[in-house]
Amino acid sequence: MEGSPRKDTSQPDTAATTEAFKLLSDETRLELLEALWEGDDPTDSSPMRFADLRERVTVDDPGQIHYHLDKLTAHFVRNSEEGYELRESGKRIVRMLLSGIALEHPEIEPVEIDVSCPYCGGQTLCSYRDGWRYLECTDCDVRCVPSFPPGVISMSEFPPSGVRNRTPNEIGHADWIWAAHRRVSVIDGVCPECAGDMPITSIYICDDHQPDWEEYQFCEHCESIFWILVTHVCKQCEYRWSMPISNYLTREPAVAAFYYDHGVEFDFGTPEQFGLLLDVEKELLSEDPLRIRMTIHLEDEELNLTYDNQLDVISTERYG
Q: For 220, how many CA atoms within 13 A lie in the half-sphere containing its CB?
């Protein structure tokens, strides 16, 4: 018996996406979503009655409220005999609005924080503008890639809500934790933006890598201070993330155990621990099949991990 054609779920439905954008272009609908969010009681899962919802919005005409609620029920609101409640998609929209993304533009001038530069050990400054958190060094002109201004150690996307009511040190810590969790998601192949499949799309190895490590300057050939860069791209939303291959060590229990045995609780929880990865030795064992070995040296011991073309560990060896 021939089955019915299966719907292709590998790509987003562009018609549905367009319709969703149209629905959210109306202020009354956004007000209704916010009212349902604010009226949600974690201790009571009951939907909100129409009369209660009407009291929470500025629109007086009940017909208009019904009209806009009917539009929202296709994507963002669930309607039942008991009343109205947000679908998970509706909750995500409200969370996005509350985070301040695309609505708020706070700025924080560079200010000293209690973090050392992972390259030179110097004093760092934290700043925030255009939705990005900057960490820069006052003692060196490190430049990992051409897009970074001299002295900028890192730039990371960080929502405006992350800087509210926080000191610069708290912002820096929150940003590092935020980015670390997103990085882990990417390494595990799940897009941190939409939860879509996010496989490795390239492993770039510079053929003539010559960065200036004395001045912490990128290589002119590959325009990166890192020899091997791994890129993931989401199949759904096309979100892109590139990172040095040494970041993959943070997911290996053998690495955490090795550092722990040497008195280091390695969890990649601080920028200073990123400095530990700068000392990791990398070796290209073969190109076909791709085999890359990374070696960590601590005191009189070393840990070797060999990776394949999917960056899965195929062997682990400890000496010393």
A: 1
Largest CA distance in the chain: 78
Backbone angles phi, psi at 260, to 5 degrees: -60, -40
- pLDDT at position 201, please? 97
**pLDDT category of residue 216 using cuts at 50, 70 and 90:** very high
Share of the chain above pLDDT 70, in %: 93
H helices of the chain, in order, are 14-23, 27-38, 50-56, 62-72, 88-99, 168-187, 253-261, 271-277
The more confident residue out of 120 and 19 is 120
**Domain map of the chain by residue range?**
14-99, 247-319
Query: CA distances (Å), 157 to each of 128, 131, 154, 164, 178, in order?
Result: 10, 6, 10, 15, 9
pLDDT in tens, 239-269: 999 999 999 999 999 999 999 999 988 877 7
What does the pLDDT read at residue 252?
94
* DSSP code for 195: -
Cα separation, 179 vs 195, whole angstroms: 15
CA gap 96, 84 in Å, rounded: 21
Please state, in angstroms and rounded to a whole number, the distance separating the CA atoms of residues 137 and 124: 4
The CATH number given to 14-99 is 1.10.10.10
Q: Which helix (H) or strand (E) holds 202?
A: strand 200-205
Q: Which tokens is 135 given?
A: 């960490």
98: pLDDT strictly greater than 60: yes
Are 225 and 218 a contacting pair, CB within 8 Å?
Answer: yes
* Mean of pLDDT values over 268-283: 85
* Burial of 141 per CB tally in 10 Å (0-12, 13-18, 19+): middle
Region of residue 140 (left: phi > 0; alpha: psi -120 to 50; beta: else) = beta
